[in-house]
Amino acid sequence: MRLLAVGGVLGSTCLLCLHGQVARGEAPIAVSPDLVFEPWAGELKEPTSMAWVTVGEAPKPEHVLLVLEKFTGNVRVFLRNPDGSARALKAPALQLPVNFKSERGLLGIAVHPSFSQNGFVYLCYTRSNRQGPDGRSDVTKGQVVERYVLNVSRAPDAEISEVRLEEPREILALPYEPRDSNGPNSCGGKILFGPDGKLYGVYGDQNRHGLETNEAGGRVAAGFIFRLNDDGRAPADNPWASHKDPWVRKYFAVGVRNSFGLAFDPKSKRLWETENGDTLWDELNIVPAGFNSGSNYVMGPLSDATNQGKKRAEVPADRLLGSKYGDPVFSWYRCRGLTCLAFLATDAYGAENRETLLVAEVNGMWVMQFRLNADRDRVKVDSKALAGRVVMGDTLDAVEKNQKEIMFARRAGTVTDMQLGPDGLMYFCSYRDGVVYVLKRR
Q1: Within a 10 A sphere around the Cβ of 114, how many other Cβ atoms?
Q2: CA dist 60 to 80, 112, 113, 137, 165, Å?
Q3: Would the pLDDT of 4 be above 50?
Q4: What pLDDT is attached to residue 132?
Q5: C-alpha–C-alpha distance, residues 431 and 56, integer Å
Q6: What single DSSP character describes residue 413?
Q7: Is residue 153 a contact partner of residue 55, using CB atoms and an 8 Å limit?
Q8: Of 284, 368, 286, 298, which Cα lies nearest the Cα of 330?
Q9: Cα 151 to the chain's mean position, in Å?
């Protein structure tokens, strides 16, 4: 599955195009009549990720939402007013020279666990090789993760007048390969800090072929999830920390084709991931250390007829690297274009919704909701249509009918990020609408 930026719209090349499906300005519709989406911040250009930070000290801390724009390279700034509304600052906190062709651009943001002490904010983006507006060049400087320090300026009345991300430091430079593919698809770019204080991120296969993608050849530095110390070094307890190749030491998991979503379960501390196939099989995965998601050897459940003849014992990276293949927790037979995922770790929406998992997708512009078992290592389903934890269907109507049990919201405008705010409410970043919505109870 490829998600392409075409005409300012994130579209799918595998099943359906988004053009004409949803009019801008229409808020998402929650399946539950008790929930409503309200616009909170707008006039964004292709927003991809966002993060809340708190500046100032008690008793009057101030909450700031940083939103990334894929196309412009801007880190937009929205202040949360005392009444809960948003105030946009005119100047971005930073503007980066991004290569924005297809899935390249300004992609991921993570806030250091000790932000209140160090002010560290991390960004992942595709660095342009040119200054100026030509961001669609086929030649880039590669994808990087950089660390910044957030600083604020205040007006005479003590209100925040400017937020700046300064003092850049390169943490990770994903190698640009002039003789190999460098995308522009399957760039990944989501980053986050785990409960262990380590920095995690995902980097798609970039159309490269090698060890990490379960194919013949050597290391290609693509198709993996990384795990780093906050300064970019590989932790000593990484799965391949003693590997002879310094790049492999940074890996947490391999076999990742194309991912736009990572999230940690706040209860189990497990890492969950969304992954997209080409035309078949989108996956929802739990990712333990040393995990092999299977691409390009296998997508979807290994037991499915589409994978006939493929054997668990023969997954290439398992044999060559010592990874461990695992089937998806849940999957879609026809590609949906899965984007982000998030846990509703809040009491704001009632006990029936607390700790459930939300997953967004492109083709229907839906958000799905999963309830987990007691051990939080499987999703719970009741309907016969989902008994195999696979959604079948070749049309939008058929897919929606078969997955009725897990439908949470429609007309969501391609949600690329979901984050809990300081008020305990969930905020949804809509790529197509250029709006951040907040979910409230009626």
Answers
A1: 12
A2: 12, 21, 20, 46, 22
A3: no
A4: 58
A5: 30
A6: -
A7: no
A8: 284
A9: 26
Q: What is the pTM of this model?
A: 0.94
With bands split at pLDDT 50, 70 and 90, how would you rate the model's confidence at 133? low
CA angle (420 as vertex; 419, 421 as ends), nearest 5: 110
DSSP 71: T
Residue 168 sits at the vertex; the CA angle it makes with 165 and 172, to the nearest 5 degrees, is 125
User: Is the per-residue pLDDT at 19 higher than 80?
Assistant: no
Give me 428's structure tokens: 């949804």
User: Two tokens at 295?
Assistant: 């691409």
Q: Which of 123-127, 165-169, 181-185 has the lowest mean pLDDT?
A: 181-185
pLDDT of residue 179: 79
**Phi/psi of residue 98, nearest 5 degrees:** -105, 145
pLDDT at 22: 38
Please, how many CA atoms are within 13 Å of residue 12, restricted to the half-sphere of its CB? 26
Per DSSP, 98 falls in state B
Q: Which residue has the tokens 């990020």?
A: 417
Measure Cα distances from 85 to 15, 39, 64, 80, 126 in Å: 38, 10, 12, 6, 32
**CA atoms lying within 13 Å on the CB side of residue 25:** 1
Respond yes or no on whether the N-terminal peptide bond of residue 328 is cis (omega within 30° of 0). no
* Cβ atoms of 309 and 302 closer than 8 Å: no
Concatenating the DSSP letter of every residue in 353-374 gives TTT-EEEEESSS--EEEEEE-T
Can you tell me the distance from the alpha carbon of 298 to that of 307, in angstroms, rounded to the nearest whole number? 7
Strand runs (DSSP E) across 155-260, as ranges? 160-174, 191-193, 199-203, 224-228, 251-254
> Residue 259 corresponds to which tokens in the numbers above?
């991912």
Residue that the structure tokens 């705010």 belong to:
421
What would the CATH number be for the domain defined by 3-441? 2.120.10.30
Q: Which residues, 6+ apart, have CB-to-CB distance to 312 below 8 Å?
A: 302, 318, 325
CA 235 to chain centre: 23
* pLDDT tens-digit readout, 202-240: 999 998 999 999 998 889 999 999 999 999 999 999 999
